[in-house]
Amino acid sequence: MELLYFGDKGWGDELFFATLMTIAVSITAMIIGFIFAALFTPLKLSNNKFLNSIGNAYTTVIRGVPELLVIYLFFFGGSGAIMFVASIFGYNDYIEINAFLTGSFSIGIISGAYSTEVFRGALQSIDRGQFEAAKVLGFNKYIYFFKIILPQMLRLAIPNLSNVWQITLKDTSLISVTGLVEIMRQSYIAAGSTRDPLFFYSFAAVLYLILTFLSMQLLNKLETKYSKGY
Amino acid sequence: MDIELMISSFPKLLNATLITLKLLSVSLIVGLFIGLGFAILRMNSHKLINKFAYGYSYIFRGTPLLVQIFIIYFGLGQIEYLRTTVLWVVLKEPYWCAIIAFSLNTGAYTSEILRSAFQTIKPGYLEAGRSLGIPSKIIFTKIQIPIAIKQSLPAYGNEIILMLKGTSLASTVTLMDLTGVAKYIISTTFKPVEVFIVAGGIYLFMTFIIHNVIKYLEKKYGFQT
C-alpha cells in the first residue's frame, strides 16, 4: 500500500493527476467528437449523393480501422500536416503539437464517428410529423432546429451517447503510446521504476472501473431526467 | 504521396495480416466458449454464481483492453509461483498472453450478447418443447441455443469487428501484427499517411468481408420471432 502514498515516497499523487488527465482528455475528445458529429450528421442525412458519400466514408473508415492506427497517423503525421499548412503562410520553423492536443484530437475523431451514427439514428427516429408540423406552423429556422428538433433528438440520443462516452474513456488508454501521462502511461512509468507491474496495472484497472462506474451513475441520472415528459 | 513506398510495404503488411487473422480467429473461438459458459452462469438462479458471472463481464467491459493485456503480459510474470508451473510456458510468450487477454475480453462481451439473446426467446417455444415431452437438456441444445445464435448474429458481427480492431493492441506487447508492422514502417520512413492508407485499406477490406458474411448468414438463418 505504501506504493500509493502521496509525495516523494509513493505514486499516489502522480496517479491522481494522471486520472485527472484521463478525464480531461476524455471530455475534450468527446467535445471534439460532437463537433465532428455536428459536421458529418447532416452529410450522412443529405440527399446529395456526393455529400452523403463523404459522410459515409468518414464513419466507415474510422469505425473499420483500429484506434491505434488512427493515433499513429496523427502522432507521426500531425506536426507534419500543421507544418505544411504553416509553410503555405510562410512559416517554416519546426512546430511541435503537444501530446494532449494530438491525443484528444485523434480520440475525438474516433468518438465523433460513433456520435455521428448515434445522432443520425436519433434524428431518423423522430416522428416525421414533427418536422412537417414545425414547417407548416411557419417557425423560423432557429426555433425549428433548437426548440423542436434538437430537444427531441437529444432525448433519444442520450442512452447511446453514454455508450460512446464509455468507448471514448477506454480509448484514451491508447494515447499512452504517444507519451501523454494519463493513467496507463503513469502506471507504465511506476511499474518500470518499482518493478511491480502487477500492482500498478491492476490499480489502473481499478481506476478505470471507478471512472466507468461513476460516469454510468451520472449518465443514468441524466437519462431519467431527459426521458421525462413521456 | 510516395506510391513506391505504398507498393513496397504492401507485401510486408499483408504478411503481418496473417498474424492479425490468427490472433482474431483463435481468440474468437475461445471467447465464444467462455461467453457461452458465462451466459449460462448468468442465467443461473443461484445468486452467488450469478453475481460472479456479472462481475466477470463488468470488469472486462469496464476496463480498457490495453490494461488487460498489460496485466497478463507484464503483471502475471511477476508472481514467482507461476514461473514454476507449466503455465509459465504459455505466459512468457507475448502471443499467448495476447490471445488470453483477447479471449477473456471478447468472452465478456459475447456472454452479454448471448444472455440477452437467450432472454428474448419467447417462452412459448420452451413451453411447446416441454409439452411435447422433450427433455430439458435437449430443449436447451436443440431449441434455445440455435435460436440464441440466430438472434445474436447482428450483435456478434459487431463484436467480431471490434475484436479485429482490438487485435491491433497486440503490437504493444512486441507482436508484429498488421498494426505493429505499420507502426514500424511509419517510424522508419516517417510517411504516416501512405502507410495508413495501405494498412487501413487492409483493415477495411477485412471489416467489409466480415460485415457481408454476417449479413449473408443473417439472411440465410435469420427469422422473425
User: Which strand-content bin applies to the residues of chain B?
Assistant: under 5%
- What's the level 1 CATH class of chain A? Mainly Alpha
Largest interface, per-chain counts? A-B, 39 and 40 residues
Number of strands of chain B: 0
The main pleated sheet of chain A reads as: none
Largest sheet of chain B: none
CATH topology of chain A: MetI-like fold
Looking at the chains present, what oligomeric state does this protein adopt? Answer: heterodimer
Task: Explain what this protein looks like in three dimensions.
The complex is a heterodimer of chains A (230) and B (225). Chain A has helices spanning 12-45, 49-64, 67-88, 99-124, 128-136, 141-171, 183-194, 197-226. Chain A is an all-alpha fold and 230 residues long. Chain A has a single domain, classed as MetI-like (MetI-like fold), CATH 1.10.3720. Chain B has one domain (3-221): MetI-like (MetI-like fold, Orthogonal Bundle), CATH 1.10.3720. Chain B is built from 10 helices and no strands. The N and C termini of chain B lie far apart (52 Å). The interface between A and B is large, with 39 and 40 residues.
